[in-house]
Design goal:
112 residues, mainly beta, 7-stranded mixed beta sheet, 4-stranded antiparallel beta sheet, globular
Length: 112
Amino acid sequence: QVQLVESGGGLVQPGGSLRLSCAASGFTLDNYAIGWFRQAPGNEREGVSCINASDGSTYYTDSVEGRFTISRDNAKNTVSLQMNSLKPEDTAVYYCNARGIWGQGTLVTVSS
């Protein structure tokens, strides 16, 4: 079965860190560009970060630049999103996407 499964979300205080993971089954992630997206309540889903397949180049939306880091682990067939210096406005359900496939999402809540 071809699917993506996100994990690593949770409740964290402002300034804290979380590491999200996106695990693929049924296909190999290293052949595809991978994107992380998020959707806060009442908002549209927005792109957060992506990593290319060919050269590993990365992209970050302005609001997370310098705080978030996307990376691949081809041996584990996963892509991670390290999130540091978290802010309340980072609260959202985070999704990964590859080859048009969406995971179920993982909730990140940043609150004191």
